[in-house]
Amino acid sequence: MPSAVPQLKYYQRRMPINWWLGRWNYTWFILRELSSAFVAYWVVVTLMEIAAIAGGAESYARCQAWMAMPGVMVLNLIALIFVLFHTLSWFRLVPQAMLPRLGGKRTSTVMTSAPMYVIWALASVVVACFILGVF
Amino acid sequence: MADKITLEVARFSPERDDEPRFDSYEVPLHENWMVLDALNYIKDQLDGTVTFRWSCRMGICGSCGMVVNGHERLTCETLLADYLPGPIRVEPLRHFPVVRDLVVDISDFMEKLERVKPWIIREAGAPEPEREFLQTPEQLATYKQYSLCINCMLCYSACPVYGLDPHFIGPAASALSLRYNLDSRDQGSEQRLDVMAQHDGVWDCTVIGECSVVCPKEVDPSLAIQEYKISATKAWFKNLLMPWGGK
After folding, report:
1. ipTM value for the complex
2. Chain region(s) in chain B for CATH 1.10.1060.10
3. Are B44 and B136 in contact (CB under 8 A)?
């Protein structure tokens, strides 16, 4: 027996391909995901430098010459910007992902974020001192 | 202040249209009128065929969620005057099938909500309590934020993950699932974990956070999902490392 209720026709919208340009939060998310590729590149370059150092003075000089090429310097600058963005975006994300409880109450966003920035600053100072030969 | 403002209302008639169009209506601009008041004026005075959901007019029922000038809003809490000089574009919630005009089909959300069992579960065979369950203010505080969800579905409309993958359990269902897990009276967290720990459960979420931005009740479903991920991970490790799954 045919149903007495007519079949409804719905309109199903599709996500446009540029959906991530619609809001700042969406764009931020896509940039954050994209920055992961530059983090991976940064790790590869660091491993290459370590391997060059292990390979002796000549190997390290070749690596330095490659790193001094204009194209590589531009790429490294872009990678640096994205790696910094990646770090800051994840620091920004932590209070959105976890707000630990202290004494039964949630800690504030500042309480959750501040230790990460402090540790980052301290670690940067230690690395800078090491590079500049202070230690 | 201007005395009129234009609303561009999305219209879709399943009998006639293949896709929505926009109809413009000029409505009086009263200082305290909300977008919902303007829609009701249109329905009563200008065009009785305009279709939309509403009920309480005080931000409680969650029925009048729509997209206003590109952002998810409860129209009963959205002042017309905030959009001067206009026009104000009113559309149905995103990602849900449009039934007619501003009305969307919410059956997918209802199915997901039921799947996470948003009610207090007691263990089978547990004795019936002789009196009501007592709860301290601290125990209440652990879940109260998530209990404020009014099922308005603004978070689903703002979530691109749900738009791209309709199987995703979604923000509100996750927040309500966690709400009952955190309730000291509840014993059903393992049953809910079976649903929430799946790939299309909380793990589909990529922490964009727009669900928490648009939430009119500050439930923060994004935080709920991330908290769920932590408890799901703990449960997985406990199951893996402890004899007999720590039971």
Report:
1. 0.83
2. 107-246
3. no
Nearest to B141 among A13, A15, A104 (CB): A104
B80 vs B28: CA distance, rounded Å: 10
Please provide the distance, in angstroms rounded to a whole number, between the alpha carbons at the two ends of chain B: 67
- CATH architecture of the domain with range B4-104: Roll (3.10)
3-state secondary structure of A96: helix
- Chain B residues near residue A26 by CB distance under 8 angstroms: 160, 208, 210
| Whether B227 and A8 lie within 8 Å, measured CB to CB | no
Q: Which of B99, B208, B227 sits opposite A10 (nearest CB)?
A: B99
For the stretch B129-177, pLDDT in tens is: 888 888 999 899 889 999 999 999 999 999 999 999 999 999 999 999 9
Chain B CA closest to residue A26? B208
Residues within 8 A of B (CB atoms), A 44-103 only:
93, 96-99
Closest-CA distance, B96 to chain A, in angstroms, reads 7
**All structural domains of chain A:** 19-97 (1.20.1300.10)
A44 neighbors A36 (Cβ within 8 angstroms)? no
Which residues share a beta bridge with B11?
A: B21
At residue A103, the pLDDT reads 66
Instruction: Read off the pTM.
Output: 0.88
DSSP letters for B173-217 = HHHHHHHHHT-TT---HHHHHHHHTSTTTGGG-----HHHHH-TT
- Distance, in Å, from the CA atom of B21 to the CA atom of B61, rounded to the nearest integer, reads 28
Cβ-contact B9, B102 below 8 angstroms: yes
CATH entry, B107-246, from 3.40.190.10, 1.10.1060.10, 3.90.870.10, 1.10.390.10? 1.10.1060.10
